[in-house]
């Protein structure tokens, strides 16, 4: 009899060997991925590694090992593993139904049923009565950690029907987790947003310095903004230094506060599907660009990061482009903040008397001039106009994650753990013992099904019962 | 030398004595000696508990941070788990010949490392730390006992028919021993899964990412996959016997490497916990 291609595919995907090899592949791939530098973590580390390993570099590039956990080959394996898990879960569900039915039948079985349908029979010592045989059997099984109960002339140890559902629940939950992970990533956005103290930024792609979004991520329904109200460089709480701590506020489209709190490790701001965490911090210079006629051209914060490699101790994140109206030459304005120093080392904090260093760089990259100004002072710009330093403060680089699938993932994890706990802890067994009176004497009829987590084995149960009921290692019939 | 260190040396001495007693008890087939080995393990455990209790009171946090504490907690869980198992099922007591040397080597290694206290940092200040680390320790304890059972299985299998065969007579039958190995692996697999799950939940709480593929996360997953393969080959491909036991023997050091090797070798967000004491 031939099977259809669909059935063959399902059989292939549901095979234990495929599942095992996929697990092996994902494991080996992960080992290699942990040993090879990942470009997500550090591009420079990847370049250094490639220089040091010229033979392996092209292979690693070809296989996508520097993006090991987003490489097509890895993702394809995870998808196939997901399919395999679903089919496996389905097979286990069918098996569980069958076992649950047999457990229910075993729970109802009477003496006659055991006598007619048993696996093996042990001839007992002729001097033993029925009650004695069952009593000895009960004690013998207790020594093997098998607890039995007598009912209707049958000594029984039958697991509850729910005991068989652990494995199917676990596998379905794993499949659900994989689906939630994949679908969640399609609609997820994750980015870094630099927000100066007092500044409000709309939650939109343009507000992020770096952002990763899934292909199904839509921004049209997102109508909120994020504000940093305050920044405490050394916030203490519960006797622990929580580190640089911004107070972050999420506002809705009308400017109404949705949620506001201090944000630090283990105290992320959660608002609906949004999670905000302080990834880093730096300084922000509030500046005003003034036109030659004296009007405000632009006003806002320019962000500055701490940088040990520079003489000032900081480097600009943002810049302003402007044009010299008289020559029509464009130039770029960079602002950094000279830090206070202790024993020659820059202190990554707002200086006691903050100033800003304004560098004007021509279109050819040459430094036109550089000037240090204090808040309230201005710098004249080429062709007229000026840049005024209004204030220097902190900015918080916020990690903003919007992922609706996280609660689903958490539920999936809990369900998976419950299923796995049942699968690991609950015994799946049927042990039925009844005394049979025959022409050759009394014997003990036994039905033994040990599917999972049994305290003993069928061989040991048979051997121990034989030893106890006959006083020696006699052969039983089965 | 402070009281806690003296107590720890005493604990190590008892564990070493237990190892020697297990070796001689099994070698010369003396039940009484293996029983004394179990008592020595239990006494050593008591000293270790007191030592870590003193340290806990002094530092204000449990044994979660730095190589010394992490390794100590692992050993504590391994020995406690084994002592409970052996007391409940005395026939498994000889498996101590596989378990106690692991405890001695790990505790000995930790005694040679820095014992300086590591302060709780903002990123670690969470009740999830206790839950996450507790399940890591429990998982490793279960894997270590499965390792011990597998070692005994292999030794007995290899001595079948030889003069050593008699010495293992009182152990459970090979199929029962194999079944127990699988059950301890299952238990470890569950605890390891809970460790990963609680870690993911905590990571999401702590820094807004439930998974970052940092080396220790990746290796936790790798170990879980290794044991998943073990369970698949056992339950679906019906592997039995010596090769299955060898699988359990080889898998346990991988778990150990993930727990204390990776934080030492890589600069990960977990480095402050098991490795070089770096801040996160």
Question: What would your notes on this structure say?
Answer:
The complex is a heterodimer of chains A (478) and B (280). Chain A is of the alpha+beta class and 478 residues long. Chain A has helices spanning 5-13, 16-35, 43-52, 57-63, 72-108, 111-116, 130-143, 166-186, 406-425, 458-470, and strands at residues 120-123, 149-151, 154-158, 189-196, 200-202, 210-213, 224-232, 236-237, 240-241, 245-252, 257-262, 269-271, 274-290, 296-306, 314-316, 319-324, 329-336, 341-342, 345-346, 356-362, 367-373, 378-380, 386-402, 428-438, 441-452. In chain A, the strands form 6 sheets. In chain A, strands 4, 6, 12, 13, 14, 15, 22 and 23 form an 8-stranded antiparallel sheet that branches. A 5-stranded antiparallel sheet of chain A has the order 1-25-24-3-2, sandwiched between helices. In chain A, strands 5-7-10-11 form a 4-stranded antiparallel sheet, with no helix packed on it. In chain A, helix 5 runs antiparallel to helix 8 (166-186) and helix 8 (166-186) packs antiparallel against helix 9 (406-425). Chain A is elongated. Chain B has 9 helices and no strands. In chain B, helix 6 (174-207) runs parallel beside helix 8. Chain B has helices at residues 3-27, 31-59, 66-88, 96-111, 127-158, 174-207, 215-235, 241-265, 271-274. Chains A and B meet through helix 2, strand 9, strand 13, helix 9 and helix 10 of A and helix 6 and helix 7 of B.
How far the N terminus sits from the C terminus of chain A, by CA atoms, comes to 35 Å
Instruction: Give the CA-CA distance, first to last residue of chain B.
Output: 30 Å
* Secondary-structure-derived class of chain A: alpha+beta
How many strand segments of chain A?
Answer: 25
Biggest sheet layout of chain B: none
Q: What is the subunit organization of this protein?
A: heterodimer
Strand content of chain B: under 5%
Helix-strand makeup class of chain B: mainly alpha
Number of helices of chain B: 9
Helix content of chain A: 25-40%
Spans of at least 5 consecutive residues with low confidence of chain B: 271-280
Q: How many helices of chain A in DSSP terms?
A: 10
């Amino acid at each position: 009899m031939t099977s259809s291609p669909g059935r063959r595919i399902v059989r292939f995907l549901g095979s234990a060997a495929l599942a095992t090899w996929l697990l092996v592949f994902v494991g080996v791939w992960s080992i290699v991925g942990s040993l090879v530098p990942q470009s997500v973590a550090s591009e420079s580390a990847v370049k250094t590694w490639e220089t040091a390993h010229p033979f392996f570099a092209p292979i690693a590039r070809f296989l996508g090992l520097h993006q090991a956990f987003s490489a097509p080959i890895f993702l394809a394996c995870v998808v196939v593993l997901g399919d395999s898990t679903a089919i496996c879960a389905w097979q286990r569900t069918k098996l569980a139904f069958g076992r649950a039915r047999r457990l229910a039948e075993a729970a109802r079985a009477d003496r006659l049923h055991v006598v007619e349908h048993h696996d093996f029979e042990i001839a007992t010592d002729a001097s033993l009565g029925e009650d004695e045989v069952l009593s000895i059997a009960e004690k013998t099984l207790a020594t093997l950690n098998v607890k039995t109960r007598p009912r209707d002339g049958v000594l029984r140890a039958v697991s509850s029907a729910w005991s068989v559902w652990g494995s199917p629940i676990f596998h379905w939950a794993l499949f659900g987790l994989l689906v939630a992970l994949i679908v969640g990533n399609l609609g997820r956005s994750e980015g870094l947003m630099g927000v100066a103290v007092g500044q409000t930024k709309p939650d939109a792609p343009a507000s992020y310095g770096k952002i990763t979004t899934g292909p199904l991520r839509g921004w049209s329904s997102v109508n909120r903004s994020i504000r940093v109200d305050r920044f405490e460089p050394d916030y203490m709480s519960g006797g622990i230094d929580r580190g640089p701590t911004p107070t972050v506020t999420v506002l809705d489209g009308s400017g109404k506060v949705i949620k506001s709190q201090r944000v630090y490790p283990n105290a992320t701001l959660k608002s609906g599907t949004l999670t905000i965490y302080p990834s880093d911090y730096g300084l922000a210079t509030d500046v005003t660009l003034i036109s030659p006629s004296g009007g405000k051209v632009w006003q806002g914060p320019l962000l500055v990061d701490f940088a040990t490699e520079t003489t000032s101790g900081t480097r600009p994140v943002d810049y302003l482009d402007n044009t010299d109206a008289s020559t029509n030459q464009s130039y770029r304005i960079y602002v950094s903040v000279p830090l206070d120093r202790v024993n020659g080392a820059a202190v990554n904090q707002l200086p006691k008397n903050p100033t800003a260093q304004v560098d004007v760089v021509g279109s050819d990259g040459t430094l036109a001039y550089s000037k240090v100004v204090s808040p309230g002072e201005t710098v004249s710009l080429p062709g007229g106009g000026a840049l005024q330093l209004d204030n220097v403060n902190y900015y918080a680089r916020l990690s903003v994650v919007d992922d609706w699938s996280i609660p689903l993932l958490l539920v999936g994890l809990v369900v998976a753990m419950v299923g796995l706990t049942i699968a690991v802890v609950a015994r799946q067994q049927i042990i039925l013992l009844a005394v049979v009176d025959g022409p050759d004497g009394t014997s003990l009829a036994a039905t033994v099904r040990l599917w999972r987590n049994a305290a003993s084995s069928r061989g040991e149960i048979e051997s121990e019962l034989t030893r106890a009921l006959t006083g020696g290692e006699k052969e039983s019939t089965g | 030398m402070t009281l806690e260190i003296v107590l720890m040396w005493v604990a190590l001495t008892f564990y070493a004595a237990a190892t020697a007693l297990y070796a001689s008890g099994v070698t010369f087939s003396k039940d009484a000696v293996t029983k004394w080995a179990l008592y020595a393990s239990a006494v050593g455990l008591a000293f270790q508990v007191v030592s870590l209790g003193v340290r806990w009171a002094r530092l204000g946090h449990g044994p979660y941070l730095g190589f010394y504490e992490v390794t100590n907690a692992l050993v504590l869980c391994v020995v406690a788990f084994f002592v409970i198992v052996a007391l409940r099922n005395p026939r498994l007591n000889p498996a101590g010949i596989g378990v106690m040397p692991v405890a001695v080597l790990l505790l000995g290694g930790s005694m040679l490392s820095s014992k300086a206290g590591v302060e709780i940092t903002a990123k670690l200040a969470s009740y999830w730390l206790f839950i996450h680390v507790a399940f890591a320790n429990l998982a490793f304890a279960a894997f270590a006992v499965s390792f011990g059972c597998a070692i005994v299985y292999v030794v007995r299998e290899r001595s079948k028919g030889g003069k050593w065969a008699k010495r293992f007579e009182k152990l459970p039958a090979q199929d029962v021993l194999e079944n127990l190995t699988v059950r301890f692996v299952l238990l470890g697999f569950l605890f390891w899964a809970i460790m990963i799950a609680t870690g993911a939940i905590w990571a999401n709480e702590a820094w807004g990412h439930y998974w970052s593929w940092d080396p220790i996360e990746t290796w936790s997953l790798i170990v879980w996959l290794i044991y998943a393969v073990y369970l698949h080959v056992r339950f679906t491909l019906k592997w039995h016997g010596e090769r299955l036991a060898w699988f359990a023997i080889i898998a346990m050091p991988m778990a150990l490497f993930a727990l204390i090797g990776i934080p030492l070798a890589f600069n990960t967000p977990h480095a402050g916990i098991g490795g070089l004491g770096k801040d996160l």
